[in-house]
Design brief:
The chain is of the alpha+beta class and 173 residues long. It is built from four helices and seven strands, in the order βααββββββαα. It has one domain: 2-Layer Sandwich (Alpha-D-Glucose-1,6-Bisphosphate, Chain A, domain 4). Strands 1-7-6-5-4-3-2 form a seven-stranded antiparallel β-sheet. Strand 5 and strand 6 form a beta hairpin. The protein starts with a strand and ends with a helix.
C-alpha cells in the first residue's frame, strides 16, 4: 500500500473544523481531484477521483470520534483507507492531519508509476487541497461555511468551480 500524509493548521475551533471536514459532499468545493462524494446513508458513500486516471470506490465510515477523528475504508473499487485527526492547538486553532493509503491500480505497473512520480503528484495535490481547506475557513464570508446549506465555492481551482464534478455531485450541491 502507498501511504501519504498531509497536515495543516486551520484558524477555527476544533468543533467547527470537524463539522466542516466530516461533510464529505463538500470536498469537490475545495479539492481539485475529488469529482464526487455522494451518500448512500450516514455510513456509506460513493467517491469519484481523477488523479492519474479516473477512479471510483464505495467507502464505509470507521472510527468516528466527534471533534477528534474520522476514518474510512473502501469496500469496493480502488482499494484505499484513511483517517483524519483533529487537534485543538488553541481556542481558535485546529491542526488537521490526513493519512491516506491506497493500493496503486494496475498491480506491478501501478507500483512503478507510484515510484516514478504518481505518488509524489498525489502527495502534492493532497497537501495543496488541504491548504485550500484552511484558506476556505479563513476567507469565507459569514454564513458561507454551513455544510448543510452552503453553495459557496471555496477554491477557484476546485472541481466544482471548474465544472468538473459528476452529474450526481451537481445534484447534491
Amino acid at each position: 500500500m502507498a501511504e501519504h500524509h498531509a497536515a495543516v493548521t486551520v484558524e477555527a475551533p476544533v468543533h467547527q473544523v470537524y463539522a466542516l471536514f466530516s461533510h464529505f459532499n463538500d470536498f469537490p468545493k475545495f479539492m481539485h481531484f475529488i469529482k464526487e462524494v455522494t451518500y448512500y446513508d450516514d455510513q456509506r458513500s460513493h467517491w469519484v477521483a481523477d488523479i492519474a486516471g479516473r477512479h471510483e470506490w464505495d467507502a464505509e465510515n470507521e472510527n468516528w470520534v466527534p471533534d477528534q477523528e474520522i476514518g474510512w475504508h473502501a469496500v469496493n473499487g480502488l482499494k484505499n483507507a484513511g483517517r483524519v485527526t483533529f487537534q485543538a492547538t488553541g481556542p481558535n486553532e485546529t491542526r488537521v492531519d490526513v493519512f491516506v493509503s491506497y493500493e496503486p491500480p494496475l498491480g506491478p505497473l501501478g507500483e512503478v508509476g507510484e515510484n516514478l512520480g504518481v505518488g509524489q503528484h498525489f502527495q502534492n495535490a493532497l497537501q495543496e487541497d488541504l491548504n485550500h481547506f484552511a484558506r476556505m475557513v479563513h476567507d469565507a464570508p459569514p454564513g458561507a461555511l454551513d455544510p448543510t446549506s452552503s453553495s459557496y465555492l471555496f477554491n477557484q481551482r476546485s472541481a466544482a468551480a471548474l465544472g468538473d464534478t459528476t452529474d450526481e455531485q451537481n445534484a447534491t450541491m
